[in-house]
Amino acid sequence: MISALQAPSLFKAFEPCFRVGAALSSRLLADPELAQIVCRHFNSITADNQMKPESVLDRAGTLARGDSRHAVLDFTRVDALLSFARDNGIPMRFHTLLWHNQTPVWFFRENWEAETDAPPASKEVMLARLENYILDVMNHVNTAFPGVVYTWDVVNEAIEPDQGGPGFYRTRSPWFALTGQDFLPAAFRAARRGAAPGQTLCYNDYNAFDPVKRDAILRMLKTLQAENLVDTMGMQGHYVLSSLDIAQCETAARSYAALGLKLQVTELDIHCASDDEAAREALAGLYGSWFSMMKKLSREGICIEAVTFWGVTDADSWLPGFRREPSFPLLFSADRQAKPAFDAVLSAAE
Ligand code: GLA
Fold first, then answer.
1. Whether 332 contacts 325, CB under 8 Å
2. Residue 345 CB partners (closer than 8 Å, separation 6+)
3. Structural domain of 269
4. Pocket of ligand 1 from Cβ distances under 6 Å
5. CA–CA separation, 196 vs 85, rounded Å?
């Protein structure tokens, strides 16, 4: 195996088709070798956590301001990765303006209380908070780091058929509980106002290949499109080696593109519980076929803005924690070597 530092550049191989990206944690900033690997292989980056509402909202500042509709924000973490991106000339995806997860409880309470049983804010107040939050974030990013962010994940994971809600909306979400479905167009309307020219607005979700979920997402996207609010469908792409169905991914990608939307794969990894030779080869085979399929779509004229891995090496994957078993889902091993999967992906570009 060859070191990630010496392996041919992944993003250069795919330049005619789409950007190749990676999600990064702030640890990157303290690890010069990892930063070098990122600069060599990726021409798009995503913050894994640093741009989520919980990393941006400042409760002490908000309480001090005393405005029930307008939270105070702290951009320390956001700026650290944006500075890295700007200084290294790598465009960023902003992930994510609205999500039911990793958003503090107090943001949803009437007087910004931290207790879960405190009275919730009214729908009207929540929609005002949402608009203020989105406009403040976008204004800060576009003013302090002009030209660095090229796409915004405006809403993450609003559809979940398993929860059986109307239109298959995710009902176990504080956004749904307090505003019904209205948070979705409200978030995109604010984002459209806050976006700089050329920035795309993305709806992002997992299992977007699943036919039932796909059809629910398509219905929702059409309602946003009626107001010209969405540009890109973000298919997360957290796959599992034993069940990844590439034909299903292709069908779903084609149906989102048929709406006239651009595509991104935003959080690619393939869970693989073993790292022995057979598992490495199986992973390589799947990654190779998956990338060939994506390249075919791009060659047909479907606009794929980027394909982003969720992590750089197996050492920084979220999957062992999530799956409670070992996982070796990425192209670079924990000791920063290019795995057979890397070679397979590179060959798919040829
Ligand atoms: C989801 C989110 C990401 C991240 C991953 C797992 O897909 O969109 O921000 O939290 O889960 O790490």
1. no
2. 10, 287, 288, 291, 331
3. 10-348
4. 95, 156, 206, 236, 267, 318
5. 18
Residue 182 neighbours by CB distance under 10 Å: 15
Is the Cβ–Cβ distance between 291 and 248 less than 8 Å?
no
pTM for this entry? 0.98
Query: Which of the 8 DSSP states describes residue 233?
Result: E
Helix intervals (H) in the chain: 10-13, 32-41, 53-56, 59-65, 76-88, 123-144, 174-179, 183-194, 211-225, 246-258, 277-299, 319-323, 340-349
Of 24, 190, 175, give the one whose Cα is nearest residue 102.
Answer: 175
pLDDT tens digits along 289-335: 999 999 999 999 999 999 999 999 999 999 999 999 999 999 999 99
Write the pLDDT tens digit of every residue in 82-141. 999 999 999 999 999 999 999 999 999 999 999 999 999 999 999 999 999 999 999 999
Residue 207 lies in a domain: yes
Question: What pLDDT does residue 28 have?
Answer: 86
In the predicted model, what is the mean pLDDT of the chain?
A: 98
Ligand 1 atom with minimal separation from the 52 CA: 9
Report which protein residue has its CA nearest ligand 1's atom 4: 48
Pairwise CA distance, residues 305 & 67, whole Å: 39
Domain assignment present for residue 5? The answer is no
Report the DSSP pairing between strands 2-3 and 337-338: antiparallel
**How far away, in angstroms, is 204 Cα from ligand 1 center?**
10
343 is a domain residue: yes
Single-letter residue type at 157: E
Distance 104 CA to ligand 1 centre (A): 16
Query: Would residue 176 count as lying in a domain?
Result: yes
Segment 248-263, tens digit of pLDDT: 999 999 999 999 999 9
Polymer length in residues for the chain: 350
How many structural domains are present in the chain? 1
- The CATH number given to whatever domain includes residue 83 is 3.20.20.80
